[in-house]
Design goal:
It is a single chain. With 542 residues, this protein is of the alpha+beta class. The protein is built from 20 helices and 20 strands. The strands form six sheets. Strands 5-6-10-8-9 form a five-stranded antiparallel beta sheet. It has a four-stranded mixed beta sheet with strand order 1-2-4-3. A four-stranded antiparallel beta sheet has the order 13-14-12-15, sandwiched between helices. Helix 10 crosses helix 14. The C terminus is likely disordered.
């Protein structure tokens, strides 16, 4: 990187003029401290930022983007840093400026209309704590409450509770700084005033552009503020129930007249999926998940020794190899009578599809962890004690289609010798909106070892590796660039590319993520000239 050259110093001085000397940094040691990614492709890229900036207001962010356009340097943003692979600096793009939004921490709750106004650095833990004071909650992902609310909402917005609360439909309005530096306020906020009463209008509803299912990873600019829908907690309690001293003695238990968790085993994947479809038709449950056994053990194990002892016990070996697990939480939104009714319906469905509720002591162990964590999830970091799990492949479709889409992913996982963690033939997915769609994941568990790295490479196709290193597109195992996958999926790269070039003609907003614009524009020019490139993304086979 051109540290210390004339342009570097010019950019540094201009950023200081905008934010003040305290909130701009270019020390190499600080740049290294901000780099926290261990995912294979982005780590191999060895990209590092040149500037870290800490804006406080939407006007600050506007000025940063206007400066980036004038002096031609890239800008990206992250909240908690858990998805750093999707916003780290990319080699070949000098003067990369990284926005740390920790000063943008506005949080306001409107209990009457059940929504929250959140700045770009408000964590889900902060949001949940404030919302709870009014008997409200917002969904939490598997990444735990340390995830940033805006980042979570703009990425998957898949929560433990998305069976009931849905996904990608809880954004009421947004304050959006375009790559040009212009500000767009969406939904009813576009008409003036401060009432985000209607995300769909009157006014523009560009959520399909900036959000879709997976967001745009900051390639369309920065969301400095969102207005998020909240939901009532069954029982309307406003203080979180807990007793004991901090971990490991501290315990939390939600009232069972309103909250009941049931881990259920079914004899086949098909039976499990069909039972979940039946539960969706009956509209029971506050959450419903198709889980892998290792998730359960990770949730309730208090140490590494306990995890490995439980994991290889006779009971869990039987579950891993012979059963297919579902977990449902019955929530009495209308009161205890609703919980009682849903439990009766649940047992009828379990009986119809040949399942059974897990026996004691596993029922109580799982129930004690799941019921509080579904709302205030803090368990996720215990997963890292085991090394790191890898997700191989993912699809978004109906619950029934998961039976088809998971076969190839399971074959990839099982191709590694020795098998990692003895996972068994488990299919895992997150259904939402009462099962109208599902997000599929295939987990493989391993300690940090050569076999794990082999699996990580197996989960990336050779075409993706070629795309990353030869075409200069860097992402991570979670997402391939649209140059590669677009021609396979209705040419979505054409739609995305035109929007990207229209919003960001100088390609300064997190370049190469989602789409390698330079390569895409070259391909468009070749098409216009009638030049075919057999080595291009469209010709690559999976």
């Amino acid at each position: 990187m051109p540290y210390g050259d004339e342009k570097h110093q010019l950019i540094f001085n201009e950023l200081v003029n905008i934010l003040g000397e305290r909130y701009v940094e270019d020390d190499k040691a600080i740049m290294e401290a901000y780099y926290r990614d261990a995912l294979t492709l982005s780590e191999a890229a060895h990209g590092r930022h040149e500037f870290i900036v800490l804006p406080e207001t939407v006007e600050d962010v506007q000025q940063i983007f206007k400066l980036a356009n004038r002096l031609q340097f890239p800008v990206s943003i992250s909240g908690s840093g858990m998805m750093q692979a999707l916003c780290n600096a990319v080699p070949g793009y000098d003067y990369w400026t990284f926005i740390d939004p920790k000063r943008m921490n506005t949080l306001k709750i409107d209990p009457k209309n059940m929504y929250a106004e959140v700045g770009a650095y408000v964590s889900l833990g902060q949001l949940q704590a404030e919302a709870l004071k009014y008997g409200l909650f917002h969904g939490v992902p598997g990444a735990s409450t340390s995830a940033i609310t805006v980042g979570h909402s703009m990425f998957q917005q898949i929560c433990w509770t998305c069976w009931r609360t849905g996904t990608a439909r809880n954004i009421l309005a947004a304050e959006w700084v375009l790559p040009s530096g212009e500000v767009v306020r969406t939904g009813s906020l576009a008409c003036g005033g401060d009432d985000p009463c209607w995300g769909e209008g009157p006014g523009p509803d560009p959520r399909g552009i900036f959000r879709g299912h997976l967001g745009n990873l900051g390639t369309f600019g920065v969301m400095t503020k969102l207005w998020i829908k909240l939901w009532p907690i069954p029982g309307k309690f406003t203080q979180w129930p807990s007793d004991g001293v901090p971990q490991p003695q501290k315990k939390s238990k939600l009232p069972e007249e309103y909250f009941r968790t049931f881990p259920i085993n079914f004899p086949s994947q098909k039976a499990a999926v069909e039972a979940m479809i039946a539960m969706g038709k009956a509209e029971i449950g506050g959450y419903l998940l198709k889980f892998g056994p290792w998730d359960y053990v990770c949730w309730y194990a208090k140490s590494m020794d306990e995890f490995w002892s439980e994991w290889f016990s006779d009971y869990w070996m039987d579950v891993k190899l012979n059963w297919h697990s579902v977990v449902i939480g019955l929530w009495g939104f209308a009161g205890p009578k609703q919980t009682d009714y849903e439990e009766k319906v649940m047992y009828e469905i379990i009986k119809e599809f040949g399942g059974h509720v897990m026996p004691e002591p596993y029922l109580t162990k799982i129930r004690n962890c799941f019921q509080p964590n579904i709302i205030r999830d803090a368990h996720r970091h215990r997963f890292t004690r085991l090394g790191r799990p890898v997700l191989t492949g993912s699809t978004v479709d109906s619950m029934m289609d998961t039976l088809r889409s998971a076969k190839e992913d399971i074959e990839i996982k099982d191709s590694v010798t020795p098998p990692l963690g003895v996972m068994g033939p488990q299919l895992k997915f997150w259904p939402y909106d009462f099962g109208h769609a599902a997000w599929t994941e295939i987990d493989a568990l391993a300690e940090k070892c050569p076999e794990f790295e082999e699996l990580a490479l197996h989960s990336i196709t050779p075409a993706q590796v070629k795309d990353a290193f030869e075409q200069g597109t860097f992402y991570c195992q979670l997402m391939a660039a649209l140059n590669l996958v677009g021609p396979k999926y209705y040419n979505v790269d054409q739609l995305f590319g035109r929007i990207k070039v229209g919003l960001d003609p100088n390609n300064i907003a997190n370049p190469t993520r989602m789409l390698n614009v330079k390569k895409w524009l070259e391909d468009q020019e070749k098409k216009e000239l009638g030049i075919t490139d057999e080595s291009g993304p469209g010709s690559m086979a999976f």
